[in-house]
From TrEMBL:
Protein name per Swiss-Prot or TrEMBL: Protein TonB
UniProt KW Zinc keyword: no
Residue stretches making up the TonB C-terminal domain: 180-239
Gene3D superfamilies: 3.30.1150.10
Keyword Zinc-finger: no
GO BP: any one term: transmembrane transport
Pfam families documented for this protein: TonB_C
Alphabetic keyword roster: Membrane, Transmembrane, Transmembrane helix
Annotated transmembrane regions: 16-34
Entry-linked InterPro entries: TonB_C
Taxonomic source organism: Winogradskyella thalassocola
């Protein structure tokens, strides 16, 4: 017995069309699945603020204080009684003499007034002076630098001989090195003036001034050929033993 075939029931006749439609559907579903987005749920709480209740304040009723009116001003004082006194005293008038001279008056000639020039004491530091002050015994030194070194040496030796180093022990100063800074000036006549001392004790300062005041008279320093005041400073250093 042979089976009967119906041409309309042939499934493979439209297979390519079904495949294309199915493929398009699958691609569409896949695209939608990939691009699908989800969002977290946010709870929104809407609060309402009523300002009417807070702004309404009850103002307490206070007692009104009635200020009394100020007292009336005092009555004006009675005017003073002015007595009229007759002027019986005679007043002598002052006669002002004229300072103008007459044509016939002699004019006294005034001699020329000479103005005396006051020379100022010019001070030139020891380090820059052209001709340093010369200490006795340094006259034979040649050159300004040699005379400066000679003066330093002579002043130091003079202080070493005259200064009382035992004074520190008598004043009760602790042992150690003591330093006194002394400044003085050699004036235009070569005398020692304006002695100033700074040290650890007033007694040492007084002793330093005494010794510097005994320095001999020097030849004054010169600047541009004129005698000038030359300031000088030197430290006095000595050791206090135990």
């Amino acid at each position: 017995m042979e089976p009967k075939k119906n041409l309309k029931s042939d499934v493979s006749r439209n297979s390519s069309l079904f495949f294309a439609v199915g493929l398009a559907l699958m691609m569409g579903i896949t695209y939608l699945a990939i691009n699908y987005k989800t969002y977290d749920k946010v709870d929104v709480i809407a609060d309402s603020l009523n300002l009417d209740d807070e702004l309404d304040e009850e103002v307490p009723i206070t007692e009104q204080i009635v200020t009394p009116p100020p007292p009336p001003p005092p009555p004006p004082a009675a005017p003073e009684i002015i007595e009229v006194v007759e002027d019986e005293e005679e007043v002598e008038e002052t006669v002002i003499e004229s300072t103008e001279t007459e044509m016939e008056a002699e004019i006294v000639e005034v001699e020329e007034v000479e103005v005396a020039e006051v020379e100022e004491d010019l001070e030139v530091p020891f380090s820059v002076i052209e001709n340093v002050a010369v200490f006795p015994g340094c006259e034979k030194e040649k050159g300004n630098a040699a005379k400066k070194d000679c003066m330093n040496d002579k002043v130091n030796k003079f202080i070493g001989k005259k200064f009382n180093t035992d004074l520190a022990g008598d004043l009760g100063l602790p042992p150690g090195k003591k330093r006194i800074f002394v400044q003085f000036k050699v004036d235009k006549s070569g005398n020692i003036t304006s002695i100033v001392a700074r040290g650890p004790h007033p007694g040492l300062e007084k002793e330093a001034k005494r010794v510097i005041g005994q320095l001999p008279k020097m030849q004054p320093g010169k600047q541009r050929g004129k005698a000038v005041v030359m300031p000088f400073s030197i430290p006095i250093v000595f050791q206090v033993q135990d």
